[in-house]
Amino acid sequence: RVVAFKFYNMYGCVHGFACRRSRVVKNKDRDVIQQAFVYHREGLWDARNVNNHERKREHKPTSRCGCMAKIQVHVD
Question: The pTM is what?
Answer without folding.
Answer: 0.60
